[in-house]
Amino acid sequence: MSDPAPDRIAAAPDRIAAAPDRIAAAPDRIAAAPAAVPTTQHIPHALQAVLGPDEVIVLLLRPSVLYIVLSSLGTLVASLVIGLVLAYSAQFAWSPWRESHAVLFGGGLACMRLAWAWLDWINHAYALTDRRVIARRGIMRTALYEAPLTRIQNTIVVQSMRERLCGLGTLGFATAGRGTFDAFWESIASPFEVHRKVLETIQRYGRR
Q: By the 8 A CB rule, do 128 and 198 touch?
């Protein structure tokens, strides 16, 4: 029986010469690969309970992290004013506190408000699937909104001044038969891009 090793050795240069072609084609195969679908590990537990086993998630969002500061601006400004007033009054003899107490009070009030806003932020969850729109929010009292794509009648993008300065926006949804908007995706990044994706999804899955 002849030894096939010489044949394999002789063919090795051809395989080596063809390797650059396979390497050059690799980016095309990678680019053609479908995008990864979010796994249940990335989906908030509150949303996992309402999603169907074969429901496809198109978008999974929550407010921008800037929501923590933007939603607390009123309290933060008030904390600064109160701290300054208390610090100023500390120079008078009748004042029972010192400047350090004023700083601690104002700073503590601001920190508590930011902590509450952070809890509010992590409890927001927005999802767009091939069947419906979902919005979840609330800390102690939670609210879960869901509407089939076939029922979404109107959508709107609203930007307050603070959101516009930060490149954020709020997306609203109204279902058929309602004169008002039922739910909002608050302070999301790239709001017009997200709005376009929502309209494309409604057109594709909600008009069947």
A: yes
Residue type (1 letter), 114:
L
Count the domains in the chain: 2
Q: What is the pLDDT of residues 64-108, one digit of tens each?
A: 999 999 999 999 999 999 999 988 888 888 878 888 888 899 999
Question: What is the pTM assigned to this prediction?
Answer: 0.72
- 141 shares its domain with 47: yes
d(CA 187, CA 65): 9
Domain that holds residue 55: 40-63+126-205
3-state secondary structure at position 183: strand
What whole-number distance in Å separates Cα of residue 71 and Cα of residue 191?
17
Q: CA-CA distances (angstroms) from residue 188 to 82, 113, 170? A: 31, 21, 6
Whether 132 has a pLDDT exceeding 50, the answer reads: yes
Amino acid occupying residue 158: V
Instruction: Read off the pLDDT of residues 191-203 as tens digits, 9 standing for 90 and up.
Output: 999 999 999 999 9
The secondary structure of 97-162 as a DSSP string is S-HHHHHHHHHHHHHHHHHHHHHHHHT-EEEEESSEEEEEE-SSS-EEEEEEGGGEEEEEEE--HH
**Is 154:178 a contact under the CB 8 Å cutoff?**
no
Residues 69/114, Cβ–Cβ less than 8 Å: yes
